[in-house]
Design goal:
Three copies of one chain form a homotrimer. Chain A has helices at about 20-25, 60-70, 90-100, and strands at about 1-10, 15-20, 35-45, 50-55, 100-110, 110, 120-125, 130-140. With about 140 residues, chain A is of the alpha+beta class. Chains in contact: A-B, A-C, B-C.
Chain lengths: ~140, ~140, ~140
């Protein structure tokens, strides 16, 4: 029979950039082991930081993400009107929508069914974004 | 016990641009209040308009989104082959895939558990897109 | 009463580009017809290929996607540090995060409730990506 489980957690503050947070999330989700099948939703309650799933091994992948997103969504463009909150703010909103506000990951036998090279990234687009709030929702069968 | 609820709704036609539609969706989803926990999926049945979650307060954020997406995915590129439906068509398809075809939002105590600054955007990429169809699906516990 | 169904499938190897795979997935998901309502999640277990939903009719749309993504996320940029796996590798990771790692599609009366023009794309970003693994999870009512 299917069941729902939901909790809110916080991720510690991180500098601007792409950060692997799979372990920090799983440490706060011990309930996962009880679900045989289903999926986990991770939802970030912010509009200037995002989530994505990508390569979990080489840290330079995350550095290249930051370099490329800064080129693709540059600061201080002449057409930006929303500038009061700093030059990192409007690009942060755009980057957040290019990446994900929520991730949905299948659960199989009490674990996230990720590929070998997949990890969860927090994409922090503000220079000083502070701690970030997540809502974790599991829908599954025990 | 978990239950499913599903309905199709229409959003009224809007001009090209990014539009806050949280209230227009919630007005057509009175059933939400009965769900204690779970999540809402919003699925758009189109390939030239999309959805995203972003800043719900300052209208210039939505204007800057439109400016930036027009720069990042310009019209009339020499490599476009799909041009018969107008110069806004192929960029509309690409923008739709850069943003979201579906949103999944956690439900907590009968309400969408959005962050303070989060709202739902309809991203209308056609000059004359017309009314847009959404499928709303709730999975949750009452 | 809600039920979960889950299986892993493989998509055959394809060349770099955007490919319509709706039929290849549905042929391996005969169980879909038993679900009256709910939704299907399609999750790709890779970080250099992605999924999206877009136009299912004109093949030049998929060609234009490939052209535009190659321009928006070019190879051989001077700021790339992750270069050991070939010049198509780092752009592949970035493209994968710009598109989707998972799709969620509503189910209505035993069928995917897609719009008339919507199809499922495999977005193959490597020159030789090989076969790609998907996890299919249905949550629904029979």
């Amino acid at each position: 029979m299917s069941e729902f489980f939901q909790k809110e957690i916080k991720l510690k503050a991180r500098p601007r950039g792409f950060h692997l947070v799979t372990d920090e999330i799983l440490e706060q989700l011990k309930e996962l082991r009880h679900f045989k099948t289903g999926f986990l939703q991770i939802f970030i309650k912010h509009t200037s930081a995002g989530l994505t799933i990508n390569e979990n091994a080489d840290p330079t992948v995350r550095e290249d993400f930051e370099s490329h997103f800064n080129k693709m969504v540059p600061e201080d463009q002449p057409y930006y009107k929303h500038t009061l909150e700093g030059s990192d703010d409007m690009p942060a909103h755009i980057k957040a929508s290019l990446l994900d506000t929520s991730l949905q990951i299948p659960i199989t036998n009490g674990k996230l069914n990720l590929g070998t090279w997949q990890g969860i990234y927090l994409c922090e687009h503000r220079n000083h974004g502070g701690s970030r709030k997540l809502v974790l929702t599991i829908m599954g069968e025990k």
